[in-house]
């Protein structure tokens, strides 16, 4: 049975609906919460069959004064996984951490909350399972700039990378594909800084939720195949 280590960077943001797909396939997982455990991260020697990095609310990777406290440690952990050939999947801030670990960079951007549409630009992406278009939620600040050798699989409405792949088993997602509306409400209460017009965006997230859940069925099939968690 496979086991995946997950780094959760806020109390409110976790895998959400992604958990259901992992459990349905018999893939075990365990959370590591550096914000509640003195910055402690999983040990590379016991990390298991892969690493998932979940977004970080108002924390960022490029904005002075709002850098994720465990940023350096998480970049080192992700880089070690890359060197060992372990699957790494990053969502939101997690994709920024992954970009830094893979010799990419990040760019400063304001804290935002939005529902975006991604468009597939690579045929056969995610082992042929990435939908032609899909909705996703972005809650956070700053942006990942994947390294030049990364393969861009989908772009957002602004033409920026929304999904990208490195090598055979490493994936970055600009947003969170398994988000639950209550997660966003909890993030608003957790931080003293909130995105502009987040109250107006919450109904849009609720309306988009069924479509996001439908797309996640296909995306998780491809993600699990790419990561090798069913072999």
Question: What this model shows, in words?
Answer:
This protein is an alpha/beta fold. The protein has a single domain, classed as Class I glutamine amidotransferase (GATase) domain (Rossmann fold). It contains 6 helices and 11 strands. Strands 2-1-3-4-11-10-9-6-7 form a 9-stranded mixed beta sheet. A two-stranded antiparallel sheet has the order 5-8. Helix 1 links the parallel strand 1 and strand 2. Helix 1 packs parallel to helix 6, helix 2 crosses helix 3 and helix 5 crosses helix 6. The longest helix has 30 residues. The radius of gyration is 16 Å and the shape is globular.
Give a short synopsis of this structure.
With 231 residues, the protein is an alpha/beta fold. The chain has helices spanning 17-24, 71-84, 93-101, 125-128, 181-190, 198-227; strands at residues 3-7, 28-32, 51-53, 88-91, 105-107, 112-120, 133-140, 143-145, 151-155, 161-166, 170-173. α2 packs across α3 (93-101) and α5 (181-190) crosses α6 (198-227).
